[in-house]
Amino acid sequence: MTEPRRPDTLFWVEPSRVVADTITLDPGESHHLLRVHRAERGTPFEATDGTGFLYRCRLTEPSSKAARGEVLERVEDAGELPGLLRVLVGLPDTRAAETVVEHAVPLGVSGIVFVTCERSPRAPLGASRLERLRRLAIAGVKQSRRSRLPGIETSESLPAAISAAGQGQRFAADPGGTPLEQDKLRRPQLEAIIAVGPPGGFTASESEVLAGADFSFISLGNNRLTTETATLALVCEVRKAMILAGLRDI
């Protein structure tokens, strides 16, 4: 008898719905598994709850409202970078913030903080907007087959965001900076924090705050970039350096 074909989609399960060796999908994910992929009892599938595990499962209860699966294997940190990459972004407009989340999450960032800077066009993000960005982050985790859901937060000031960012090598996008050297990241501290200004960039006083917090200023070339483009460009630069640093340790 032919084994059921495993769907190539990674399914999302809330952490509270993982109990021992059983996961229970919500109605939306259950519908996708059963109706779109035509899964039946015994079909293998993979899911994540964003806490660092990819679950390899077998469908045991094909309910359209609460499909259940038996966890056969847990793979820790599947699809993750070899280190932590946190992003501080000067708060742009709504669509630009969504673009940052949609594209930075598949690139492996571990957290995004939208910072209200002196040139930000709006106040800190509210609960409903943060929830919308969290849903976009979940979609990015599924699409890229990651196992950790990045935190999406907001901060009322750059000093507060830097203070809460934790340890790691620090890089800020700045037209007057120097290109990032690909061997810049070091072990054992394979963690990085990057900062990108809002539309119009960081002010002189904010640049002083960054310099005082040991940020290295990185040039992204001669073109004028939007906040979202600069964020993704710097994420890619640091991501590549991080991967190379990880490979050097193997």
Please tag this protein with its features.
Ribosomal Protein L25, Chain P, alpha/beta, 250 residues, six-stranded parallel beta sheet, 12 strands, Alpha/beta knot
**Mean pLDDT across all residues, rounded?**
92
- Poorly predicted runs of 5 or more residues: none
Q: Biggest sheet, in brief? A: 6 strands, mixed
Distance between the termini: 42 Å
* SS-based class: alpha/beta
Please bin the fraction of helical residues: 25-40%
Remind me, CATH topology of the largest domain?
Alpha/beta knot
With helices defined by DSSP (H or I, 4 residues minimum), what is the helix count?
A: 6
Shape category:
elongated
Order of helices and strands: EEEHEEEEHEHEHEEHEH
Q: What is the highest CATH level, the class of the largest domain?
A: Alpha Beta
Using only C-alpha atoms, the radius of gyration works out to 20 Å
> How many individual domains?
2
How much strand content do the residues show? Answer: 25-35%
Please characterize this protein's 3D structure.
The protein is of the alpha/beta class and 250 residues long. The chain has 2 domains: 10-76, Beta Barrel (Ribosomal Protein L25, Chain P); 84-248, SPOUT methyltransferase, trefoil knot domain (Alpha/beta knot). It contains 6 helices and 12 strands. It has helices at residues 27-36, 94-104, 127-144, 158-164, 204-212, 227-248; strands spanning 10-12, 18-19, 22-24, 44-48, 53-61, 68-76, 84-90, 111-115, 151-155, 169-178, 191-196, 215-218. A 6-stranded mixed beta sheet has the order 1-4-5-6-3-2. It starts with 9 loop residues before the first strand and ends with a helix. The mean pLDDT is 92.
